[in-house]
Fold this protein.
Amino acid sequence: MLLKHQPLAIVALTTIFLLLACNGHSSPVDEDSFPDELSGEGSDENDDDVLPETESVENEVQPDIDYYPCAENEHQVLHQTVIIGATTSLTDYVGYTYFTGSLEFVADSMGGEKDLMLLSSLHCIGNDLNITYTKKLQSTKGLDQSLINIGGNIDIIGNESLADTDGFNNISEIKGWLDVWSNSNLSNYNGFKNVKQIGEYLNIGIQKNLINMNGFSGLEKVKSLILSSVWDLASLDGLQNLNVISLSLQILDTSIQSLYGLNNLQTIGEEGSNGAVEIASNPMLSSLEGLSIQMTKMNTSLTIANNPALSSLTGLENITSLSGRLQIVGNDTLADISDLYQLTHIGQAPQGEGNDLEIIDNPMLPQCAAEKILENLQANGFAGSYEISGNDTAATCE
């Protein structure tokens, strides 16, 4: 019986469906159940509601402009201090362009590299660069490929084989200090020729093979210049562009014969700095000529001591005032200090460190010339402590 009446049932269902459609009822089929390809939804490529695939969002690298010019993206940045020694390898740091901390060589690397070519992509060091106590490192080449900025200090100390500073060719400013000490084979300083300013001091000490200062020919301003136990240094040639030393100048135990090279220096000791000028223990120094300071006031103390060949103080003739004390001590052949006769004011010695004025143990200097310095100061209100002794009491003054 079911088979007999099946066509009639189909006709009846079809008729009901058509009547419902005509009466405005929606189709009983839910279109949301169709796949997008059939329903037509989501097929528009420009549909704003369509999100990119999750994978592409995660892999997309957003450039961080704060890293410019040190890095293009986060993958090139290492947020740590890098310490190179016997248990570390330079190959671990290939490809990085920015170390946000310091770079410190405390010994030769695991690979015993003789240069720094493996760091040729490095643009910036956030803090200090210390190259200390290496035995095999011969050259800083490699750093010169990209390195443009060092945020702190540079220490180059105690390296047995290091011969050059070429890795610093692109550095124009050192924000902290530059310490170069006790590198027995270092003779090439030309890597620093483009440095115009050093924020703290330039300190070169216990160094052989440095004959002149040509490696610093671009230097214009430094806080302090300290040259100590640089035995082969015969000349300050190369410092002709230096016009400001904002705190102190110390030249100790060198072979220089004069101060030529400092002839364009306009300022030693900026206002309120209370620095020091100390020229001492230079056996070949026969003259201060070349210093020729143009200013009349030095915001420093002044010490001229133990320079056995120095015969006069020519070069200081414009100075009328010192913010610190004056010491002229132990200069065997010094016979003329008339270039300081115009001096009218000096400051005080640090507490517990001697007298404000000391002119002592200069055997060829007339005692009366030393006393004239004191008289000029006292006439302008000087009431500080002093010692004038050990000079030539038999000589006369005009």
